[in-house]
């Protein structure tokens, strides 16, 4: 698979469309009827993903958590693929500062933002589409994507220089969230019956990867016809999302229903990515999710992706493979899988399912 150098069509910034005051959205953003939020698809309005208190996880030992908390996390990983965490050890002040710093970036003049425009080659920078299919139906969102780890990919020049202290805030936020991810990885390993470092070692130990995608969902005049982000499962290992707690938008698919997540204040939303589904031989599931938009308020969220070292073949952990439960997936590096995803764009759960070993 070869890398693609440029987008197939001129890029239109969704924020510019929104701010132009247009009463109807361009046809390019209208989803097929079955994919629209307005499509008759039962939603349980009272349901929410589990909220789990991580008090005791602030140190380096995951075993400090009560057994009941470990059980809650295990159940969430197997049944939902998603959960919220509170008392997670990251400063609420830093969380708010990170979100509002990025909100300020998206409200800078267009010529400043355009200096950071991205391409399909690395995706790093200011973007407005995923996938390179010409004529594809697009999502109602802009974003900023940047590499955090490994250090060989970390380039401050590709991070916004405005607003003031933006780079310092991003750096500090990434440091703290990466620590939280490392602690959660220990819990996931223990709940599979392994040593704390099993999954982390499969990721490359200290040589793991991390990146940040900041999502900006402008107001949409026809939110019943569009999506901020199409249905997909996350291609990486573990995702920690800082939501906009004042504007719900994330929906998780559970038992055929779309559940709109109700974010708790200063909670993170954690979800399993495709790489951990593969490593766990599908004991843990990456789950389909999407983002809806609304006509009254914009929304900003920060998705921190904690990933394997890019050139290590990822396959089911040997201890989880048996005659009764053979390996469901053939080995593939994260680099190979990420390019596979980028060329195709969001496609529900079909990406990881297409990788299952033939029987």
Topology (elements, then pairings):
Elements: H1 14-19, E1 51-53, H2 67-79, E2 82-86, H3 92-106, H4 110-114, E3 125-127, E4 142-149, H5 166-191, H6 198-202, E5 209-217, E6 229-232, E7 238-242, E8 250-254, E9 257-260, E10 268-272, H7 274-279, E11 289-291, E12 299-307, E13 313-314, E14 332-333, H8 334-344, H9 350-353
Parallel strand pairs: 1-2
Antiparallel strand pairs: 2-10, 3-4, 4-5, 5-12, 6-11, 7-10, 7-12, 8-9, 8-11, 13-14
Helix pairs in contact: 3-5
Report strand %: 15-25%
CATH architecture: Sandwich
- Number of H- or I-type helical stretches: 9
Q: Note the main sheet.
A: 8 strands, mixed
Count of DSSP E strands? 14
The residue fraction in helices comes out at 25-40%
SS content category: alpha+beta
CATH level 3 topology: Jelly Rolls
- What is the terminal separation in angstroms? 25 Å
What series of H and E elements makes up the topology? Answer: HEHEHHEEHHEEEEEEHEEEEHH
The CATH H-level superfamily is: B-lactam Antibiotic, Isopenicillin N Synthase, Chain
The total tally of domains equals 1
Shape: globular
Radius of gyration: 20 Å
CATH domain class: Mainly Beta
* Strand order in the sheet with the most strands: 1-2-10-7-12-5-4-3
Mean pLDDT across every amino acid position: 90
List low-confidence stretches: none
């Amino acid at each position: 698979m070869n890398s693609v150098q440029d987008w197939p069509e001129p890029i239109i910034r969704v924020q510019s469309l929104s701010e132009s005051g247009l009463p109807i959205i361009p046809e390019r953003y209208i989803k097929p009827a079955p994919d629209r939020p307005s499509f008759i698809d039962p939603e349980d309005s009272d349901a929410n993903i589990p909220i789990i208190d991580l008090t005791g996880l602030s140190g380096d030992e995951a075993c400090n958590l009560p057994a009941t908390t470990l059980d809650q996390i295990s159940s969430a990983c197997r049944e939902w693929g998603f959960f919220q965490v509170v008392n997670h050890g990251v400063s609420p002040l830093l969380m708010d500062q990170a979100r509002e710093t990025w909100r300020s970036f998206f409200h800078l003049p267009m010529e400043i933002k355009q200096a950071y425009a991205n391409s399909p080659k690395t995706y790093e920078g200011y973007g407005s589409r995923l996938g390179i299919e010409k004529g594809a139906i697009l999502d109602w969102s802009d974003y900023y994507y940047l590499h955090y780890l490994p250090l060989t990919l970390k380039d401050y020049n590709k991070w916004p220089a405005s607003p003031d202290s933006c780079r310092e805030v991003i750096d500090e936020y990434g440091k703290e969230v990466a620590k939280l991810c490392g602690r959660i990885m220990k819990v996931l390993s223990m709940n599979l019956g392994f040593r704390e470092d099993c999954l982390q070692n499969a990721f490359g130990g200290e040589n793991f990867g991390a990146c940040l995608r900041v999502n900006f969902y402008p107001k949409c005049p026809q939110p019943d016809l569009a999506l901020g982000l199409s249905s997909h499962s996350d291609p990486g290992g573990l995702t920690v999302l800082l939501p906009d707690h004042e504007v719900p938008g994330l929906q998780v698919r559970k038992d055929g229903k779309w559940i709109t997540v109700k974010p708790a204040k200063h909670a993170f939303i954690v979800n399993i990515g495709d790489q951990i589904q593969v490593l766990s031989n599908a004991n843990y599931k990456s789950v389909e999710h999407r983002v809806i938009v609304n006509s009254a308020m914009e929304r900003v969220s920060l998705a921190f992706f904690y990933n394997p070292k890019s050139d290590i073949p990822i396959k089911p952990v040997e201890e989880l493979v048996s005659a009764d439960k053979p390996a469901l997936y053939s080995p593939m590096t994260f680099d190979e899988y990420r390019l596979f995803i980028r060329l195709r764009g969001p496609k529900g759960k079909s990406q990881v399912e297409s990788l299952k070993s033939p029987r």
